[in-house]
Amino acid sequence: LSAMERRQQDIHVPILTQQQGPTEDASDSDNDDIAFVRPSASGWLEPPPLKRTYSVTRLLGLGAGSTSACIYNLFSSVLGAGVLGLPYAAKRYGFVGGILLIVPFAITSLYTLRLLQWAAALSCTNNYRELCAFTVGQRYPFTLHLISVIIFFNTFGSLVVYLIVLGDLISGFASMVGGTPGGGSLLDIIAQPALVIIVLGVGVAMPLSLVKNLSSLRYTSFLSLASIVYLAVMLTVRTIQQVFSDRGASVEAALAMPPREIPALLGGLPTFIYAFSCHFNYFAAVDGLKKKTQRKMLTVQTGSIVLSLLVYVAIVATVLLLFAERTESDFLVNLPRADNAFNVAKVTYTMVLIAAYPLNCHPCVRALLDEMGEAGKKEATRNVATVCVVATSIILAIYCPNISVALGLVGGTATSSVIYIFPALFFLNLSRVGSPAASPMRSDGRPKTEKEMSLVHRVPFHRFFCFMLLGLGALPGRAASSASSPDEQRQARAAQRLDLKRLPNATQPLPSPLDATLDTTGLCGAAGAAAV
Fold first, then answer.
1. What kind and span of H or E run contains 46?
2. What is the pLDDT of residues 44-56, one digit of tens each?
3. Neighbouring C-beta atoms of residue 308, cutoff 10 Å
4. Predicted confidence (pLDDT) per residue in 256-289, tens digit
5. What pTM did the predictor assign?
6. Taking CA 278 as the corner, what is the angle to CA 480 and CA 377, rounded to the nearest 5 degrees?
7. d(Cα 400, Cα 59) in Å, to the nearest integer?
């Protein structure tokens, strides 16, 4: 027998030679799943070539379980509403200083994400609470409840702020194009913030929050990326036009901005910390990867932080060049209403908040379910808890808008604990003497590979930086108390009494609930450091 015939008998696969096509018996047989293999010149069987198919989903990196889809989700979690107050915080340090200060906070956030990845790999855990239970929870059980409380209030405060900002943006746009609150037309209805919050909360936020797998939110996260890129591009275009029209006067005005006094400088730090907060969503984001390798998880971390850094630098630089000292705590207030491109950018920015809402609602509900024990593991319980969280955030956003100040104090202030303090504690616990991270041997007695030993050699280096992170996490406690000068505080209180924020024709905007979240970040960080 020839080599081809012997190969055919060995694998029992029908062969079609080049001279003979498929016979009637072969085509009509009951074995429809038989794969006909083409013979090659060498005598070996070769499968037919696979045709690579291209689609819009594939080209945009939106495939289920893809690395880019996870980057989109984590990027949306990073972005949120933190970008709104970043130019105002950067203004305190001057044009160059404010832009340069974004970089170290991005690097620090990326480093703490890396610490979480290492700690999870060493402890074989896959979420924040399990990691806490494995490291410090056995010796200090109260830290498990502390983690749940911090994550819950952190994310729940953001949910309320998102709804308030959404209601103000859309109702403000409707008022600008002719809508009047209290009228009967569609524009008049949209001009009412309460109705906008109810419609978006029940019709959009709640269905997205009920999705069990965060990977399903990759489409809204991609739209969020497209929306913020459009805003950054429009700001860049308008900045270039202004620089050429005023012959560089705007650049000189931006460069001439002096740094503030030390208390004001410290008051801007919490905003930079809040701008890169995504650690409570990290495990859920990388859980959507098809193959959870260390390299892919590092790619997700790096991609999301680098994208956020580029967006922040572009927006901060252009906003300061355009408005300089006139930059408000919510820079969208500065955008001229007569510019239709900016009006469209304001509306599309709502996509950023809509995408960030379910990404913050998931860890909020998860923290609530963790405190319920076995009852929290049921699917029905998760759905009921999600509905209750969304409904409560809607009610607070409508009837108690000032409650966001208290929620920002408790929720947004916990950011430094989640980003700096606890990741450092986890790694310090796992890398102490005799722990798996510091040992040259595996748990099964075999020596570690060269790649695994690289972490062992760097343990003292990382432990040094972890101790520095503990101090950095407590620093915003002092910064929050110096967030604004007495004159600024008196102006804010006067504006609050006049309730200028809800007046469509107000000339002096009331500091948004986002300001409280940003300006008070770190009080709980100091408390967390004291508790540790």
1. strand 45-46
2. 555 555 555 556 6
3. 26
4. 887 777 766 777 777 788 888 888 888 888 888 8
5. 0.76
6. 115
7. 44
